[in-house]
Amino acid sequence: MGKEKLTFLRIVEAIESAIGPLILVIIFGDVFMQVISRIIPGNAISWTVELGEIMLGALIWFGISSGVKSNSHVGFDLVVRAVNQKWKKYLGIWNILVFLVYLVLLGAFTVQLLQYYQKLDSKSTILRVSMFYVRLPILLGCIMTSIRLIFKLVNVIRGKELMYESSSETVSLQ
């Protein structure tokens, strides 16, 4: 199981490390074209706004999985700091389970939505891209984040990873 786990996580990380920067480059190029086209009177490119919206949504959904990896996702640190480490573990497990349930439900609803888009052959307004591909990052983000959360849950239960680890480091402005 150890090798399979490492290989599976490496695949997820490879996808994140390839897609995230690519999306950022596309967004940068899109915004650059948008700014340049608006500087020149009468030459605004209308599709750049739609492409930016699509790419920003994709970046958010792929970024959620990265946030789980680095523990930089939104949490209730203020509430959790007041309890001992044993309760932090239980709260962490609860947090992961609630997040997993949410992602599974969202993923299931997204599958239904994607099927609906395919059935109706829905397309975006300006670029005429299939809405299936516009919304597909939601499902992929749910899957990748769920994979990370499952591995995190197993590590927390086994005691290999601490939840809400109290850090002795302080933030300074040096």
Can you put this structure into words, describing what you see?
With about 170 residues, the protein is an all-alpha fold. It has one domain (about 1-160). The chain has five helices and no strands. The chain has helices at about 1-40, 45-70, 75-80, 85-120, 130-160. The protein is elongated.
Q: What is the radius of gyration computed over CA atoms, rounded to a whole number of angstroms?
A: 20 Å
- How many domains? The number is 1
For the largest beta-sheet, the strand count, sense and barrel status come to: none
Q: How many DSSP helices?
A: 5
Count of strand segments: 0
- Whole-Å distance between the termini? 45 Å
Query: What shape does the CA trace take?
Result: elongated
| Global structural class | mainly alpha
Percent of residues in β-strands = under 5%
Mean pLDDT: 84
Low-confidence parts, pLDDT < 50 over ≥5 residues? 167-174
What's the helical proportion of residues? Answer: over 70%
Order of helices and strands: HHHHH
